[in-house]
Amino acid sequence: MAENLYGGAYLSSFVEAILDNLSKILEDDSVLYGNHSAKKFLPRFEECLIEVAPVLDDAELKQFTDKKVKRWLVDLQDALYLADDYLDELSTKAAIDATQKAPGNSSFWSRPVDSILEDSGDLEYIVGRLESLVRRKTLLRLKETAKVDMSWRIPSTSLVVSSDIFGRDKDKEEIIKLLFDDTCDAESPLTVIPVWGMGGIGKTTLAQLVYSDAKVVEKFDTMAWVCVAENFDPVGLTRTILEKIASVSCDRDDFDSLQTRLKEMLRGKTFLVVLDDVWEDQKDMWEDLLKPFHYGNHGSKILLTTRSEKVASVVATAKLQYQLSLLSKEDCWSVFLKQAHLSADSINPTLEKVGKDIAKKCGGLPLAVQAMGGLLRGNSNVTDWNKILKSEIWEFPHDRIKVVPALTISYYYLPSCLKKCFVYCSLYPKDYVLSKSELILLWMAENFLQPVARKTLEEVGEEYFEELIARSLLQPHSTCENKFVMHDLMHDLAMIFAGEFYFRDEEPKNDVEFDIKTRHLSHIAHGNYPIKLLEKVCDRMKRTRTFLEINSGAHFPFNMGNLPCIWSQLKYLRSLSFRCFPLESLPDSIGELNHLRYLDLSKTNIVTLPESLGNLYNLQTLKLYYCRRLKMLPIGLQDLVNLRHLDIRLTDLHEMPKGMSKLQSLQFLSNYVVGKHEKNKINELGALANLHDAIEISHLDNVVNSSEASEARMSEKDGIDSLALDWSSDEDKNIVDSQIENDILDKLRPHSNLKELEIMGYRGTRFPEWLGNSSYHNITEVSLHDCRNCRTLPSLGQLPSLKHLTISDFKSVETVGVEFHRSDESCLETPFPMLDTLSFYSMPYWKEWRCSLEFNALPRLRVLTIRDCPMLRGDLPNQLPSLQSLDINNCEQLSCCCLPPSLRVLSIEGEHQVESMVEAIKHTELTCLTCLYITYCSSHLSLPVSAIPASLEKLNIWSCSKLEFQMDGQHHSLQKLSIINSCDSVTSISLDSFPKLVHVSIWRCEKMETVVVSRSLSCLRTLRIQDCGSLKSASTLWMLAPQLKDLILLRCPEIELSACGDPHSSLRSLEISCYKKLVSSAAFMNSQFHGLSHLAIHGDEIHQSECVKCLPKEGWLPASLEKLELKYIESVETLECKGLAHLTSLKELTIVRCPKLENIEGEKLPASLLLLTIYSSPLLGKQCKMKDPKDCYWHGKLDIKRIWKGLLLAWEAGYKEVYCETDCHEAYVLLKDFNIPSCSEESALVLKTQQILLRPWRVEVALIQRNANRVADAMAKHAIIHGVHYAEWLLPWEDLRCAINLDINLS
């Protein structure tokens, strides 16, 4: 039997919820005891709701054409909010009274609930308003409609897979053809291609198809996708593009410095940047925005989507634009069938005719067709389909509903509960990335989720969300997993039906009129927000239920002390979020928000929480994620008996508060820190039977015996799918009873539904039998760390679904044998049947890995890593048919002679391994190998070019002093070649054998005299040669590389640069050392490098350039320069302005550690100069002030605030760093003021001791002066870089030094 189509009016679920609450109150005499007013008016209240409920469906439809009906619905909704607030106070009072009377109650509720009830709205007034509305409904002739089944099928399956795209194959190929056409504009390296068409036509979908096409991905070095939307801000947009390309966040607001950094990031790269949903049509703004993009390689493209033909004509290159047309009737029908889950071959002919007519009414708009198909999914009732086809909404005038009729219909037929959830999304700005879990918790706080038998509210919320996805009202994000977006047209639809009750405050305008009816408010933080304006908001919107601060990332001062209005006026708040704001404390008055159900303080600077927090009886969600300064939770937390979600991840709590077992409504508890005292031990977890998702239990060393562990009842918690068990790593606690430790872990056995397990610091000598038991059929990931007393590994081979296994810091394991692969030798199952990645780290006494051939173990292993296992001997398992990546590091006795032919990435470090691996490469057909890293081998090695696998694209050789190449052929695949501290005996190397090279780095090859190139290297883009003391010449190299963009020649004192041949027009960046030979011949730069925009001249502490007293000489520098750097030149005394006078484009001048530099000679610095940065050059101070650049700051005893106001945050190679020589307290204040990440006294101390955090790989580097060469070796040996091999990462080390403006060394 087909399910009913009709969904129900927007207010129907609200009325039902109020009636449900009212019925419970009327049935409980204790609630109304002594409240005569309530006893008199509540029955009349109930009668009113019963009378209006049947006419809501009629009013829902008539509101589109009758303004009086629409006003009636608005007035009714306002009255319902008042009524709901009153009833919530009443039921809360009753619940608190019951709690206080309960035996053994320890709570200290102190709120004057009765007085609050009086303030919450006079019940007689509320009932009077409702009775007036009942009378008005008669005058409006609203009809009672027959009660229908309003339940719409809610799918219990996971999210629907994205439907196939129909009718866009030709469009996709045309766009790709334009992207591959590098002749569109011969005069510019950049081409802008706009794709335009009406909203919902599929522009973004088409761009996504193109962006993810394999041919496109292969063509472009750098790709970025940026959603622009209506609020076009050149500064913010440039920052966003920079963040996407650099893969790190950026806090800069200076447009020029942002553009300069973006230019440097794009220089020498062939890029594709997609700007999605563009509205701005001012040509001058676009010209300013696009300036950095002209420094990329020829063939770079910007693909832009817009609804506006005017925008397309403004931005298009040479009138190059692509108009996207509507879908054909046939393609619309295909989309409809796909969304409706129907087949063209089996559909009923009558249904097919009606369906095609519906699809036709969508006017060729894909989004509308998807919405209609999603609406009718699973419904084959012809009558219902005809209701849709003949709906009068199709005929409503467009100026009345202002959105596509098909979308209005898709909303109209939503179930009432889903309408409220959908409209709630209008609080977020357009194109905001939505979090499913956050939305569900907010919906729950607003009481949008209708309870269903045997399902939690969270499960109901999941189903609601999936239904909105299935109906195309929300869409999965194109790149972020578990994130979602709302199409602009859907956002417009939500805004229309949100009406006066929702307000999104995006601009701090004093003239904004805030509607007194507003119940849901979001404030989008873009910068400093006037406190007085926020007070005005609070004063006008006293009945607000939702207050969401959505921080866009820009930092601005914000102190809760300035916001008493939040606590004193907004008494009806149910949802409150200050996520990512620099709050340090909450006032005690937070406890007066007795309606509050959702409180998010994540990523704030909160230090303590007031005890009054325990008064929030209704609180369901408390988010404290990444509150690193929070050490304790309030004692009163135990009184939050309705708390369902407590997120304390990445806090530094010392222990849990007492009485956590009282929180029996908890569905999610991210962490439990075991205490030593009664009522905060591990047994408190036992009563929390409803926990779901993930939990980490830490400080397990405080568990005394297995009896305590058993009381946690972990085996009964079937909702937990991820479990982390953590013992503190205290060296003083090494003396433990291993049997007790084993028993404790045994009693912590999780339920068999577990999917992920992590164990850290376990102190027993063996693992219990449950770990590895095949009954854990859902486990996909296991991580075991720092189990230093364990002598054997657990039997994990029989976990049927295990995909990822990491084992590290097992100090007592000597043998990995049969027991690791299977617990019972008679078992015939294949060990590790699904394992994809296997990693071993830091196992100093591991000697043997026994893996018998008959096991056929690890049939799907793709990635194998073994690091710091110096005693491991023998060979690797030789039956690894699927292995693609092998990384062996510091395993001197391990043989690597058997390499599987499926290998794609091979990284080997160590004397013995490198020797055996090189021999294996010579005798093995490695037809898939693309990346090869060879590190640390002092033995004589010979590597013939003919022996290098033909598929190899990247070759890194590091610290292999006696390696020699035999140039006995050509290799046509190699694109990246790095030779670092290697090939000591080689005096000459020819690059002719590698004609396809793109990037070349040669470091510290002291005897190398020449780099031979006799033919064109047409693909070469980057050439770096440094610390090659014997190198004589490199001019042939760069002259035979016509597309070379970046040339770095550092600390090569014998090198000569002289003009030869035609000028080099493609070079954009040049870094050279300051030597006598260079100085005498440097004048050629002006004539030879016409397009050069960045020049860095470095001194050399080893080979001093004592003759250089004055820089730069007149006539040296090309006029195209935009950035000039002088670094570490100890002899230079004078900065010569005459040598800079002709640099009309120069914007940045940086001088680093030129201690004798004292004079600036000449009239003035170039007028174009925007930034002068001086470090460790104290004699230059007075001269700088006289020259008056727009920004000038330097190290020294100057006003520290001034220094930090313009602090350079370097973004070269994706790093972000800060440096300041000041005292700890002063640095702390500055860090806090400027919102530098990890702001704490500790981070200030890090600055004080000259340490630095390099992102995004979190490599801590201790900084001391001098000896830069040792740094690279030490970094290579100790740095852990996720996803990037260290040898490759260290290639731009000099860039890193330049970026930080320091000599950096690792002690």
TrEMBL record:
Name listed for the protein in its UniProt record: Disease resistance RPP13-like protein 1
SUPFAM superfamilies, per the entry: L domain-like (SSF52058), P-loop containing nucleoside triphosphate hydrolases (SSF52540)
UniProt keyword terms in alphabetical order: ATP-binding, Leucine-rich repeat, Nucleotide-binding, Plant defense, Repeat
Lineage: Eukaryota, Viridiplantae, Streptophyta, Embryophyta, Tracheophyta
Domain RNase H type-1 stretches: 1203-1279
Pfam families to which the protein is assigned, alphabetical: LRR_R13L1-DRL21, NB-ARC, RVT_3, Rx_N, WHD_DRP
Transmembrane among keywords: no
InterPro entries: Apaf_helical (IPR042197), LRR_dom_sf (IPR032675), LRR_R13L1-DRL21 (IPR056789), NB-ARC (IPR002182), P-loop_NTPase (IPR027417), RNase_H-like_dom_plant (IPR044730), RNaseH_domain (IPR002156), Rx_N (IPR041118)
CDD domains from the UniProt entry: RNase_H_like (cd06222)
Residue ranges annotated for the NB-ARC domain, each copy included: 169-340
Residue ranges of domain Disease resistance N-terminal in the record: 14-98
Domain R13L1/DRL21-like LRR repeat region: 682-809
Domain Disease resistance protein winged helix, first and last residues per copy: 427-494
Gene3D superfamilies the UniProt entry points to: 1.20.5.4130, Helical domain of apoptotic protease-activating factors, P-loop containing nucleotide triphosphate hydrolases, Ribonuclease Inhibitor, Winged helix-like DNA-binding domain superfamily/Winged helix DNA-binding domain
Species of origin: Stylosanthes scabra
